[in-house]
Design brief:
Number of domains: 1
CATH topology: Rossmann fold
Shape: globular
Largest sheet: 4 strands, parallel
Number of helices: 8
Structural class: alpha/beta
Oligomer: single chain
Order of helices and strands: HEHEHEHEHEHHHE
Strand content: 5-15%
Strand order of the largest sheet: 3-4-5-6
């Protein structure tokens, strides 16, 4: 998504808990700038300063993509409070607080802005052995609608992307399970796992003027999973 937004003309500020990997170089290859901010978004007290720092880099803020997320897998009967809280703090609490801080900046600038949340197929379905993840991603869809209701009149578009089964580090354990991997892939009409690049176009669309009259919508990028 960062590379696709850069290709569309955006300078990128990445908020990373650990190393940003090859993203800075890939962004800079497009001719745009990448600035890294290291932060742990599970600590709500850092969020105001993170958004202020991001705004300060180029003097304004136009787009927020809430992509930070974690997952914990365990049978619901054995699921720990720690695993519940860790996931909820990143996957929904941070989404709300980042959105709130960004919306305040958008209002101060008087220019509106775009917020793109990252939901999931488990915003629609229950899943297996991921109760806190499912709860958090269902909440992302609801929060997207709620914030859109309040902020659309301020020219702030709040929408979400629901990726299908993507080949990322979050699904590494699933893809390593030969039987589960095969069962999942066979249920996807496109007959493959998605890639991060598959989500890029959706992010650019929802962050662009082409989406100015789209509010509170969650766009599935799932290879046809939900259509099955």
């Amino acid at each position: 998504m960062a590379v696709a937004l850069a290709q569309a003309g955006a300078d990128i500020i990445g908020i990373n808990y650990s190393d940003a990997g090859d993203t800075p170089a890939l962004v800079e290859q497009t001719g745009r700038r990448f600035h890294n901010i290291t932060a742990d978004l599970s600590k709500s007290e850092v969020i105001e300063s993170v958004v202020a720092d991001a705004r300060g880099v180029h003097g304004r803020l136009d787009i927020l993509v809430n992509n930070a997320g974690i997952i914990r897998r365990e049978d619901a009967i054995n699921f720990s409070e720690t695993d519940w809280d860790d996931v909820m703090n990143i996957n929904i609490k941070a989404v709300f607080m980042m959105s709130q801080a960004a919306a305040r900046v958008f209002n101060e600038q008087g220019s509106g802005g775009k917020i793109v949340n990252i939901a999931s197929m488990l915003s629609y379905q229950g899943g297996i052995r991921v109760p806190s993840y499912t709860a958090s991603k269902s909440a992302v869809m609801g929060l997207t609608r709620a914030l859109a209701n309040e902020w659309a009149s301020h020219n702030i578009n709040v929408n979400a992307i629901a990726p299908g089964y993507m080949a990322t580090n979050n699904t590494e354990a699933l893809r390593a399970d030969v039987e589960r991997e095969k069962a999942i892939r066979e249920r996807i009409p496109a007959n493959r796992w998605g890639t991060p690049q598959d989500v890029g176009g959706a992010a650019v669309f929802l962050a662009s003027e082409a989406a100015n009259y789209i509010n509170g919508f969650t766009l599935a990028v799932d290879g046809g999973w939900l259509a099955r």
